[in-house]
Design goal:
Layout lengths: L1 E6 L7 H15 L3 E4 L12 H7 L3 H12 L2 E5 L9 H11 L10 E7 L7 H13 L3 E2 L4 E3 L15 H21 L1
Parallel strand pairs: 1-2, 1-3, 3-4, 4-5, 4-6
Length: 183
């Protein structure tokens, strides 16, 4: 089984990118093959149907679609912006969802978030589920959130709290087990 994994953050030292690194290690140890992408690889303009009609799909949208097609599922680590998902991520979903057949259809996903706030990014993940599920993605029922993430990592990038790591490990192992059964 192969998963496309990325943090939907452009900031180099984002908390979500730190969480992605830990989650990828855990997923690999659970037996998943990983395609780890930088979200910046999928640069694209704001979705505009006129632009699509005039010039087709931008290279960033085509690259994301190709990586989604090549994967069995996705592990998306997303920041929460203003109680929702980042506009860049929603825009990427909008572009890719216009392709036929829809690359997302039939895929599965695990959603994760890290935030310095107490809510841990959960509100953004609930918003992210909507367009993914609407495009045929089976989203794993549980979502991993890491609150107070600005204090959660050791200097070498590991989770400092054993309980947070155990919860992450259990969730990823559950997701990978589900994904294997779907295969």
């Amino acid at each position: 089984m192969r998963l496309l994994a990325f943090a939907a953050s452009l900031r180099r030292e984002s908390l979500n990118r730190k969480l992605l690194r830990v989650a990828v290690e855990v997923a690999r140890s659970a037996g998943a093959g990983m395609d780890v992408a930088e979200f910046a690889e999928f640069d694209m303009p704001l979705y505009n149907a006129d632009a699509q009609a005039a010039t087709g799909f931008p290279p960033g949208a085509q690259a994301l679609a190709a990586r989604v097609r090549a994967a069995d599922g996705m592990m998306i680590v997303s920041p929460e912006y203003n109680f929702s998902m980042p506009g860049t991520l929603k825009n990427a979903i909008d572009w890719v969802s216009r392709m036929r057949p829809v690359p997302f259809r039939g895929k599965h996903a695990l959603l994760l978030a890290a935030s310095g706030a107490m809510a841990g990014g959960i509100r953004g993940l609930w918003q992210l589920r909507i367009p993914l599920e609407g495009n045929g993605v089976l989203v794993y029922p549980d979502m991993y959130t890491l609150s107070q993430a600005d204090q959660a990592f050791t200097p070498d990038g590991q989770l400092a709290d054993a309980g947070a790591l155990a919860r992450l490990r259990a969730m990823i192992e559950g997701y990978v087990a589900m994904a294997e059964k779907l295969r």
